[in-house]
Each structure stands twice: as structure tokens, then as C-alpha cells.
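Feature request, filed as a ticket because there's no other form

It would be nice if the structure record came with a short human-readable summary line next to the C-alpha cells. Right now we just get the raw output. Example of a typical job, pasted below so the devs can see what we mean:
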Amino acid sequence: MRKQRSQEVSQEYKIMVVDDEEGIIDTVTALLMRSGYWCKGFTNPLEALEELEREHYDLLILDYFMQPLHGDEVVARIRKKDYELYILLLTGHKELAPPVNTLKSLAIQAYCEKSDRTDQLQLLVESGIKSIEQMRTIKQFQDGLNSILGAVPKIYQLQPIGNILEEILRQILPLVRGEDAFILVDELPELLDTSEFSDGEPEERKSIFCGIGMYRGSVDSFTSLLDHGLMEAVGRARTDCSLTFAPEGVVLPLCDEQRRSLGVIYARNVSSEYGIKLLEIYAHQASSSISNAFLHSLVNIKNEELYETYAQLKQRYMDTVEVLRLAVDAKDEYTRGHSDRVVDLSLEIGRDLGFSEGELEELRVAGLFHDIGKIGTADDILLKAESLTKEEYEQIKRHPTKGAMILSAVSMFESIVPVIRHHHERWDGAGYPDGLAGKDIELNARIIAVADAFDAMMSDRQYRSHLSFDDATEQLREGAGTQFDPAVVGCFLALIEKNPGVLDSIRR
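Raw output as currently delivered:
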């Protein structure tokens, strides 16, 4: 038996080399160790078999002609107990190589002739390691799926929500070799109790979260780690019900059989592409049973626990989005306070149209955050004094979609997401991003479009001075029926005519 050479190598994969020629052992082990692999050599196949009984190895490089056992006999003994060991067979006699049927029957994965050139052997070893890595991932996937299915009875028990979610995360993380993750899950619409609402307004869907690794802890610590890129990725995964890459990880959607979003799982610092693909399959297969079991348990858990967790998440997430909004306003001195003024004007229109308090609150939040997507737009575009190029304008046009994705991250903004997305649609269908027309555009989006345009016209910009009151109102009249909902424009103009004080907050 040859001694292992003392070098700094990775022990992630263990390789055994068996050959009755010491020179071959020396050459192959030196090659493998230079490539960073841990390996051990044996000149006696019987000693090698004893070692395999005691220790786990991932790959075996085996000579065919040896004493006292040929390579095929060694493999036959191994395969009685181990079908997972990857075996690469070597031979120095091409004419005496084992037949193909022997290779197949013994599940020998690769075959290589001995030569002075080691590139073929190195290539086969690299290929073998990749196959081993894939098999490990598949096994992790199978084990994880079995664990989740085995955990379902526990999920039905009345246990704390955090325990349920943490169990789900612990089963999924090994698939992507991650350590930091969080899960956001919503209750389904049919679980909402609307009996207490006399005005008929729907109850808000509730979201709760759980984190492990760097996301473990309070809601405060969770939201402090969010940035607009991650929030947008979470929202996109929920909206599209598809796996989405974030700046430092991957967001996995949890969707039911009707492709309704139940929440997301985010895993940070994912290292395995193959693991990500398996993770996507895993979620598709497991999310329905996980979510149904979770939601069933959720209904039976004390409501106070759910409401307290949800209330904390709602407030902290609202605070986080408010910080992003203020950051957008702070980028440009000319637009500072724009969203607040849009809110004021929109609410005046909403009141005049007879909105309820709940509808006005929804309009207020939508007005506040209508430009939140500009947080992802480069400053040199937002602050440019000259005309934008076509490419720069296309960047600007993405902000409604980005804003909608940021707010889609949690269900609390579910009702206003379409408003954020569509506040630049036009009555005639020539707007963006979806080319909606007429009453296919949400009423709140049509209201904000008028308030947004009027405040923009009455404000200075880098590239122009503000318009006069008469010119601004005239442009609204000209745009009624093309750019704007004529009924909303009519309401707004009548409102400011009979109550000029409405404009005190925006007049220069």
C-alpha cells in the first residue's frame, strides 16, 4: 500500500487509486493532488477492498490486470454492497480490455487506456466528479422531499407558526447549500373572515415570515436587511410564480395548483446551479402540500399570534418602503415633495367622487408610493437636464413595473400594485407598460395620472420651468379623452374652480 502524500487538498471528494504498479500510483495521485483532490493509493486490491469496507470513497480508479484479483473481480465484490461508488477502469492492454457487456453489467461508469498523456484521465476524473456532485444533489433532493412529506403530520399539529416555517426552511436549504434564508407566507383569500365588515370592504390578507441564519430574529432585523433589489425580486417571483434571481441569492415562489401566490422562500449565497434547478422542481412538487398543511394549521392557531406577527411585519415593511420613497424624493430637489402633493390632489378628487374612508386610504398609499420604482433608476438619467435618449427613456418607463414588483413582495399592498403599475397608462391605450385603455385602467391609477401630471406641470424641472396655472389646466383639457380619463379631468377642474384653496400646497 502506498502512503498518501502530504499536501493541502480538499476532502470534499475522496478518491481511491488501485494499481499493482507503484509508478502508476505515484503518477495518478500526483496528478489528482495537483488538481486539489484528496486521494489514497493501494497496490494490493484486497487491502483496497478492506479499506472500502471501513471508509467511504466517492471515486475509484482501478487497474484491470492485477494480482491476486483482476479489476472486474474487484468491481463485482464492490457491487454486491455498493452501487453508488463511481468507478473508472484503467488498462494498459487495449487488445485485452474488458468487453462492453462487462462494463455495463458491473455498472463501470468510465474506461481509460494508460498512456504517457494524462489529459484524458484528468478529463474523465473531472467528468466523474461532476456526476458525483449531481448524484449528491439528487440524493439531497430526495431526502429533503421525503423529510417534508414526513413532516406534514407535524405541521397539522397546533404548534407555533415559527416552528412550522423553520422546519420548511431546514428541509429546503440543503438543496442549494445555503445557510441564510427567509420565508414569507400569506393566508389564502378563502380563509378571510369578512363577516365583521359592515361596509363590505374585504379584509387584508395577512403575511408572516420566519428566517434562519442572518435572517433569524425579529421583524426589525429582517426588514433592515432588505434593499430595493431584493424586494423587487421577491415581488417578481410572486407575480410571475417563477424562480427569480436576486442580487445575492434566489427567490423561490410558493404557488398553489391555481398558480396563486402563497408566498416566497429566499435563499442567500446559493452555490449550486444544479441545486437551484432541483429546488424549483422541489417547490413545484411540495409547495401545495406544504402550504395546505401550513394554512390548515394556521386556521387553528390562536388569532392573536397571527395578528401580532402580521402587524409587526406590516408596520416594518411600510417603514422600509417609506424610506425608499423618501430616497426617491431626495434624489432630485425639483421633485422633492412630489408624491405628497400627488396624494393631496388625489384625495381631493377621491372625496369629490364619494370615496369611502377605506377607499381614500388605499388611494393615499398608492399616491405616496406611485414613483417608488424610480429607486432603481440611475441618477444620471433622473437628473439629466437635456433630452433623454431613447434608451434612457426606456429605463424611465420601467419604473411602474419595478415599483409594482417592490410592493408585490408582501400581500398588504396587493390591492394597490395594479395602480402603481398602471399610473402611466393612457385613456387612448398609448401608455405603458401594458397598453391598457379606458376603464380597463384602475380608477385610482386614472386619478393619480391626472394629479401626477398636473403637479409635474406646476413644478420646475432641470430641463424647463414650471407652467402657469392656466397653461397647466389647458393641457389637462387637451389631454382629456386621449391621455387622461375625461371624467377625472372634469372632476378635478370643477373642483379647483369652486375651491381654489385646494392648490395652495403646490402653487409656487
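Something like this underneath would help us a lot:
The chain has a mean pLDDT of 79.
The first strand starts at residue 10 and ends at 18.
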